[in-house]
Amino acid sequence: MASFRAQRLAEMIHREISVRLRTEIKEPGVRSISITRVQVTSDLSRADISYMPLGGGPVGAELQETMERAGRKLTLRKLEGISFHQNGTVVSHNA
């Protein structure tokens, strides 16, 4: 079970990534992404973000780059890395 702080941080990251995808990233197809889960380690150093395109389908390199860009803009003191997961693929961003 994740700590209360890890759960709060996961919720904050979920909201922030969702807002950035909706308002700051202006690429076709990005509005149809759903952030399905955010998990943060108990020491608050890593976040694993699961996402999927609404309606299913494959994820191209452009969509993966968009997710990485949204994650790069997160600046949290202890967060060292973010991993994005979709259908068995992993895209990592280390701060």
Tell me about this structure:
- By secondary structure, the chain is an alpha+beta fold.
- It has two helices and four strands, in the order αββαββ.
- The protein has helices at 4-23, 61-72, and strands at 33-40, 46-53, 81-86, 89-94.
- A four-stranded mixed β-sheet has the order 1-2-3-4, covered by helices on one side.
- The longest helix has 20 residues, at 4-23.
- The radius of gyration is 13 Å and the shape is globular.
- The model has no long low-confidence stretch (mean pLDDT 77).
Write a brief caption for the model:
By secondary structure, the chain is α+β, with helices and mostly antiparallel strands. It has helices spanning 4-23, 61-72, and strands at residues 33-40, 46-53, 81-86, 89-94.
Task: Note the main attributes of this structure.
four-stranded mixed beta sheet, GMP Synthetase, Chain A, domain 3, alpha+beta
Number of separate strands:
4
Number of domains: 1
Spatial strand sequence of the major β-sheet = 1-2-3-4
Q: How widely separated are the two ends?
A: 25 Å
SSE pattern, N- to C-terminal:
HEEHEE
The CATH architecture designation is: 2-Layer Sandwich
Helix content: 25-40%
Task: Calculate Rg over CA atoms.
Answer: 13 Å
- CATH class identity: Alpha Beta
General form: globular
Sheet with most strands: 4 strands, mixed
What fraction of the residues are assigned to beta strands by DSSP?
25-35%
- Average pLDDT works out at 77
| Separate helix tally | 2
What is the assigned CATH homologous superfamily?
Answer: K homology (KH) domain
Structural class: alpha+beta
Low-confidence stretches: none
Enter the CATH topology name. Answer: GMP Synthetase, Chain A, domain 3
